[in-house]
């Protein structure tokens, strides 16, 4: 089994646009899988491909998006459960050390993670903003923080060429 594993868990998401944005983020940050609970997302997504209009890189073609009964039961025993929510007593994200293997659980757009899931978490973190952020934005910030704190970051012009839009050929003048 590989050294690093990253999964996103979504508690009863309601917005196909947010889920599409999360899938795009999952592709950008090399997430292994995305899980969700509840019935709202499948119902909203049944109206066509609206959820993927924000996944312009087609990450949903390579990364599984799976409905499950329980996010806690969705991963192996060696995967740490990290809840990300505005919960009293949570650790500010800048102070958090990410585990090698984690499922990051996010609450719904209009609610919070249940006390039962919080009680089973290995850690609870929050992004120290004034007010709550959009769900997809929260996932992006969390994943960026994990990348920024990682020792396995690839940062060079090859990555830029591979990642940028086809219409972008701009260079920094030297």
Task: Output the keywords.
174 residues, alpha/beta, seven-stranded parallel beta sheet, 5 helices, 7 strands, globular
Strand order of the largest sheet: 3-2-1-6-4-7-5
Mean pLDDT: 86
Q: How would you name the CATH homologous superfamily?
A: SPOUT methyltransferase, trefoil knot domain
SSE ordering: EHEHEEEEHEHH
| Percentage of residues in DSSP E strands | 15-25%
Provide a count of the helices.
Answer: 5
Question: What level of helicity do the residues show?
Answer: 25-40%
CA-CA gap between termini:
43 Å
Q: Would you give the CATH topology?
A: Alpha/beta knot
> Major sheet, described briefly?
7 strands, parallel
Shape: globular
Structural class determined from secondary elements: alpha/beta
Task: Kindly state the number of beta strands.
Answer: 7
Describe what this molecule looks like in 3D.
This protein is of the alpha/beta class and 174 residues long. The protein has a single domain, classed as Alpha/beta knot (3-Layer(aba) Sandwich), CATH 3.40.1280.10. The protein is built from 5 helices and 7 strands. The chain has helices at residues 16-28, 40-45, 115-120, 135-149, 157-163, and strands at residues 5-10, 33-36, 64-67, 80-84, 91-92, 101-106, 123-126. Strands 3-2-1-6-4-7-5 form a 7-stranded parallel sheet. Helix 1 links the parallel strand 1 (5-10) and strand 2. Helix 1 packs parallel to helix 4 (135-149). The mean pLDDT is 86.
